[in-house]
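Worked problem 6 (solution included).
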Amino acid sequence: MKNIFETTIEKRWLILTLFILLSIFGYYSWTKLSIEAYPDIGDVTSQVVVQVPGLAAEEMEQQITIPIERAINGLPGLHVMRSKSTFGLSMVTIVFDDGVDDYFARTRIIERLDEVDLPYGAVPELDPLTSPTGEIYRYILESNSSDLRTLTDIQNFTIIPRLKQVSGVADVTNFGGITTQYQVELDPRKMEQYNVSLAEVIETIEKNNANAGGSIVNRGDQSYVVRGIGLVKDLDDIGRVVVKSVKGVSVYLSDLGTLKYGNLERSGALGYTDKRGVDYSDNIQGIVLLLKGENPSDVLLEVNKAVDELNDGGLPEGVKIHTFLDRTDLVDTTLSTISRTIMEGIGLVILILIIVLGSWRGALLVAITIPLSLLIAFILMQVTNIPANLLSLGAIDFGIIVDGAIVMMETILKKREDNPDKELTVKTIAKRAKDVARPIFFATLIIITAYLPLFAFERVENKLFTPMAFTVGYALLGALLVALVLIPGMAYFIYKKPQKVYHNKWMERLTNAYHSRIQKTLKKPKNVFIPLGVVLAAAVILTISVGKDFLPELDEGSIWLQVSLPPGITLEKSKEMSDALRYKTMEHEEVTYVMVQAGRNDDGTDAWTASHLECSIGLKPYSEWKRGRRKADLIEDLAADYAQMPGYNIAFSQPMIDGVMDKIAGVHSELAIKIFSEDFKENRRIAEEIITTLRTVKGAVDLAIDEEPPLPQIQISANRERIAQYGLNVNDVSELIEVALGGKAISQIFVEDKVYDIITRYKEESRNTPEKIGNLMLTNAEGAKIPLSQVCDIQLNTGESTISREMNKRHLTVRLNLRGTDLTSFLNEAQDKIEREVNYDHEKVTLSWGGQFENQHRAYKHLALIVPLALSFMFVLLYGAFGKFRQAGLLMGIVPLALFGGMLALNIRGMTLNVSSAVGFIALFGVSIQNGVIMISHINVLRREGAELLTAVVNGAKQRFRPVLMTASVAILGLFPASMATGIGSDVQRPLATVIVYGLLFSTIITLFALPSLYYLVERRFTKNETK
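Solution. The predicted structure is:
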């Protein structure tokens, strides 16, 4: 009866055809995959944003934030809920558990919001459906002729609507500019002169700005639509509105004050400077947000087309869109880095195959496994909706991918080397293939099993490494299919006829030397325990001493600054300090542009005030920097420059990482210490003590309290008793404060396709001091005038600028970054010092660490649970491969020894043990076991064929020396370029590759020199017992 390999060899051309068709489908799948430079590592989140201009932080918390929080409590899948309340803004961030569908989450939130009773005019809105890494495109408007007001109209009514038409764009957010309003500035003295109340003015404006529909009038055979045109068109129309008539004389709105074009109270301003000489101290920016789940490359292609269309005639003459951030650049740079390391790795693999196999045809046949396995992986990725993450592709060790093909090719080539003058038969090749098929299958399965712990990750690490696990797993399955189905038939075609075989003399000498060494070693096999004990002890010491972090920093090729300015400053002062920051930063030759955002954007998704700046610094490609200069050097220089500028508290980050950390921990920093209690004053005292303490801990930088300190306020407290005495109610007081002081949109005016608010407020000179505010008049139902000071207590005081909450509890946050130390070392010292040196009531106050600490703790906790399970599953597979517990246990016993090389490399190279390097160790364990499987399987075959134990071990080790050396060499060299890479996109793969390269180097030595002795000792003992 034929075995399956005879069939595959005989049908080799059919199988080759099927693989060609599979390759075509794989290429098609690649073109349809979503290609990302970095995976979307953000949580499933939604933000509820409510903007009520004029309300202080305390009122926003009490009237808006807390009711929304109470409605959201208990939402299915809720992980954590945070909120910020500041002047005019409430922002509630809801973070869901992994696996919760975004649309399900948003639907549930909307249902809960329908139940919330909020003050009139407070409209809760959900943020766009995007992710923390969704800001894919930023631009400014350039013009030498148009003013900022005109540019804002162009932005709001031309550019943003056009960009929103692009499929895959979630939203386009505006930052900066001037939002035009038609303003009615009332003079309280004239209102008193004409005896006009504020309520009458509001009612008049509302009633005199409307069109009416009069249905249809028929005239003969023609129907006419009747329209009543009553909408105001300009300031003159508004001014001619009659408020009342006094003794037959009409009182017009223009008689009561000044009508003018004004603007919405600005909450943000944008400055921009670049190397072209462009310099704007007050400009306008657009931020394009990617719809979650869309392909960023495809969307950016269409966005760029839309921008080109606008620039080529869609905008007024002299106005142009200038792009300064395009995620395509990051994708291209990352792709260049990954492609280079992949091609270098593949080149080294092919070179080693040619040198060691001595057959260029055999080497190329093995090498064909690489593209075929990738194309098969692309098919499976498209079917299972896994994106083509460039970090995942860069983490593939193509040396490991070809291991199975190497073993298959080597065993067939060995048959040809042993019989150079005989024609090989199908049955001969099939038998050879069958002998190694089982170890190839189980070895591949073991490596795939090694990646199983990655599926147990949650949140950030899950999104970063799970695509990697799928990609590598699919590629290994494809490689297994190629090795077992395609290689035997193609190898038979190449080597079936008698032919001279190249004898690699240096490999033969190396093999003979190895054979001699094994013979000597097996004379005193117990001596192997001494070096193994030293290696194990060293591995333990190195593991303890190595620094520990959550993740390596992902270099985005740019810098992002979070800047705190003196609290309470005006937007104009903030702009002035923003200019100074830009000019100082542009002095560095590596910088290409500097963009500074002062305050917050128009959609309210950042709860900043004018006392806060965010700064984006564009950098030249690293290849254009001076030789040896690094990004870290530039950051040190910038930090030194900024330290000479008083009033700036600056924290360094990167654009995407900053957004991710904001969603993960609620702060824009690597670490956060949250102080929970209701006493703001006490919280701030504790926070300041913590900052003082942490300044003495090595590595702590960018220390600051996240929430701004209390700000001066004019507090107007209603006296209900007096209000009732004068025949008024609290709403009359609230309306006067809201409309007369804050300015309220009463109606709208339509100018072609543009819409502007009509707002009413009192003149500034009548409301700019507590005394003048107290003199403002209220009108009761009888028409009597009552000064505001008669029914309210008006005084200067201080109030909270920003109120932060988490899971319904108030807190204050200390934020910080680390530089020059690892996370674990810092935490050990910092937590100990805070416990000893910071005084607070442990019963009333709770301290909680967040940010990278929380992520590291969670990731390591899951690894501690799942890695033993994965190792247990490997043990089961080894038992399936060998059928003996002792041999499975022997291979599992040498796994800890593989730690040595990886840990040594991390210590020497100054790297830390983080999730990326931990993933490298997981893969290393699998590959180390694979090499052991190759050797032990062959020794077992020789023993089954009748060889004595010692002979089987010596000859088996010798015969498996070349395949083990080859599989190890290609695995090492396949990732060696990645272990040395320094470009953008190399940060995650570098520690992973370092661990595998150097760990495998030492574990291969153990497999070749220690495993035969250990196998011999174990089997000799059991053989004696079985004989007895």
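Discussion: Residues 211-215 have pLDDT under 50 and may be disordered.
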